[in-house]
Amino acid sequence: MSEIRYVRGDATAPRAAGPKVIAHVCNDRGGWGRGFVLALSRRWPEPEAAYRAWYRDRADNDFALGAVQLVRTGPDLWVANMIGQHGVRRGGGKGVPVRYEAIDTALDRLAGHAAALAASVHMPRIGCGLAGGDWDRIEPLAEARLLRRGIPVTVYDPEDATAEGTQEAAVAGRTAP
């Protein structure tokens, strides 16, 4: 089994030949406007439009924690909107919105899509920015669901963040944990 490749750079500009999927975590409340999604929206309108329609029509589709929506943004490029966050972080001590079980399920579903496309997967440290998750808990999920199925994974840390930082934190203008 290979290892996750860690690089400094922009997760919206994957460094690889062939088909690629950019994976990120979304909330289950229809919110799109903070964190890594801003970088996605600056590059392509399709992932946001598809997510908003998916949420709007959720009574008639699979929108729920653990679901994955693949959105084509180029000839060999897709964005995977993965529902792995319950609500959004606000004050009030309700805990963090990340849902590790949902991220695990979404990564398993993503693996099926990536395998069918013969695609590599590229991501920031998903679930660790606004969702409040711990990469030490998410990394083994990516290894188990993606790497063990032979899917190459590259994780991007922003140029201006610490090694423990996250792309979501950098895009949101916050200091990484």
Rg is 15 Å
What is the molecular shape?
Answer: globular
Main beta sheet: 6 strands, mixed
Strand percentage: 15-25%
- Numbering strands along the chain, what is their spatial order in the largest sheet? 1-6-5-2-4-3
* Structural category: alpha/beta
Question: How many helical stretches?
Answer: 5
Average pLDDT reading: 89
Helix content: 25-40%
**Number of extended strands:** 6
H/E element sequence: EEHHEEHEHEH
Low-confidence stretches: 163-177
In whole angstroms, the N-to-C terminal distance is 30 Å
Descriptive notes:
With 177 residues, this protein is an alpha/beta fold. Helix content is 31%, strand content 21%. It is built from five helices and six strands. The protein has helices at 36-43, 46-56, 100-117, 135-145, 167-172; strands at residues 5-8, 20-27, 68-74, 77-85, 120-123, 153-157. A six-stranded mixed sheet has the order 1-6-5-2-4-3, sandwiched between helices. The longest helix has 18 residues, at 100-117. The model is unreliable at 163-177 (pLDDT under 50).
Features:
6-stranded mixed sheet; 177 residues; disordered C terminus; 21% strand
